[in-house]
Design a protein that fits this description.
Layout lengths: L1 H14 L4 E2 L2 H11 L1 H22 L4 E10 L5 E5 L9 E5 L4 E14 L1 H68 L5 H36 L7 E2 L22 H21 L5 E14 L13 E13 L7 H67 L5 H35 L9
Helix pairs in contact: 2-4, 3-4, 4-5, 4-6, 4-8, 6-7, 7-8
């Protein structure tokens, strides 16, 4: 109840249009509650119960009511031998039936033995489990998309922060060069170069702002959140904490693998349902009817008007034994068997793919940790070089070109570090996914 209440409060806050701090956990939980994919997967789980009920209904009695009203303007006549009526050597032409006939009744059918029905009942539990696993897989896919887009938004925001800082620093340099130019200590070309650089930085800032808007809109779409919602991503969500590299995960516990194995189980049941075509079927049928006949419209009419009503019923035991079906049943069984063998190949390939994902995620994690440390040191050195070059420029010991190159190198080092953090975070998501632990991001 507490979780539902928190999600409700988040939903109110998001829909109100207020600027909201959005952690990765909040984003993931919001998506699982609001994204269409997650909702549809849950509806499929609900629908699976109705499919199971449909299968079970085949084992229950089938009761129906029937009725008809028939008018015979011309009654067919039949020619019979008069010997049966004491008139040998003659032929009698007689009409059988009445102008009006009306019937109403009930019929019942009950399967006593039908192998396909029994197989369907056995498959009911597997059907439910299949959709439950599919729901879990859909949730994991939603979580992965949201997490990757969440970190992508952060990277764009960091790039904008760096550009804003670079713009401020370049503005200070421009002011210095402007003062030097006014005092005849700097050339016009130096001032123009600074102004051009500021214009380029400002253009890039506008492009990054546009990319941030597009990336945020993509994140909101994958969350199922109104696009107009204003969000803030807290910086602490992007701290690099070395992932725990535990023992290798059991591939057979992965959702993708479990779903394929459950699908294989359902295909086996499907093959057995096809094989049921070789078995005989036995059913019970019963019916009770009430019929009225006469020369006039029979409803509500009485015998004095020539309309007579009577009832009749029948109970039957029906046996159907397939002897030859033109090899149709055999073809269906073989098709079902091919589907099973084809899926088994998919299962083998999926096991290899899941193992590959884990190995690659481990490699990427380790490589990105090394890259982050290298880029962090590069960033420190670039910042130090920029500071020294700036002091040297002010003292006339460095050229404007040296200063601009130092600024570009510092900005590039910071951007490289930011990209390294993004690559690490995406690799971290891949590792969590390969271990089958994406749901931990919701806690």
């Amino acid at each position: 109840m507490k979780r539902i209440f928190l999600i409700f409060l988040c939903t109110i806050g998001f829909s109100a249009g207020a600027q909201t701090t959005l952690t990765l956990k909040d984003a993931v939980n919001y998506a699982l509650q609001n994204k269409a994919d997650a909702k549809k997967a849950k509806l499929e789980v609900e629908n699976s119960e109705y499919k199971i009920q449909e299968i079970r209904s085949r084992a229950l009695p089938q009761i129906s009511a029937n009725g008809n009203l028939t008018h015979n303007p011309i009654i067919q006549t039949t020619v019979i031998d008069g010997a049966g009526f004491g008139q040998p050597g003659t032929t009698i032409q007689a009409a059988f039936g009445q102008k009006w006939t009306s019937t109403a009744g009930l019929s019942l059918t009950q399967a006593i033995f039908d192998q396909s029905v029994f197989t369907g009942l056995k498959a009911a539990k597997s059907t439910r489990e299949f959709y439950q696993i599919n729901d879990q897989l859909t949730e994991e896919q939603v979580i992965e998309r949201v997490a990757n887009n969440y970190y992508s938004v952060y990277v764009q925001q960091e790039r904008l922060t760096l550009l804003d800082s670079n713009y401020v620093n370049t503005t200070k340099v421009r002011d210095i060069v402007q003062g030097q130019f006014d005092n005849g200590l700097a050339k016009k070309i130096d001032l123009d170069r600074i102004i051009v650089k500021m214009s380029n930085i400002d253009t890039e800032r506008q492009q990054i702002k546009n990319q941030i808007t597009l990336q945020e809109n993509a994140l909101k779409f994958y969350m199922g959140m109104p696009i107009e919602t204003q969000i803030i991503l807290p910086k602490e969500e992007f701290e690099v904490v070395p992932a725990a590299l535990t023992q290798e995960p059991n591939i057979e516990n992965r959702t993708e693998y479990l779903l394929l194995k459950k699908q294989e189980e359902l295909l086996v049941f499907n093959k057995k349902a096809m094989q049921a075509g070789y078995y005989p079927t036995l059913s019970l049928s019963a019916g009770y009817n009430y019929i009225g006949q006469g020369p006039e419209f029979p409803w509500f009419a009485k015998p004095e008007r020539g309309v007579y009503w009577s009832d009749f019923s029948a109970i039957a035991l029906n046996l159907h034994v397939p002897i030859f079906t033109g090899f149709g049943t055999r073809a269906k069984v073989r098709q079902a068997d091919v589907e099973i063998r084809s899926l088994q190949e998919d299962i083998k390939d999926t096991k290899l793919s899941l193992d590959l994902d884990y190995r690659n995620a481990i490699t990427q994690i380790n490589n990105n940790l090394v890259t982050i440390e290298n880029q962090k040191e590069n960033m420190r050195l670039a910042t130090e070089i920029l500071s020294n070059t700036k002091n040297n420029y002010l003292q006339g010991l460095a050229s404007l070109t040296d200063l601009l190159d130092a600024e570009n190198a510092s900005l590039e080092a910071q951007n490289n570090y930011t990209r390294a953090v993004l690559n690490y975070k995406i690799a971290e998501i891949s590792l969590i996914k390969s271990k089958g632990e994406l749901k931990t991001l919701t806690k």
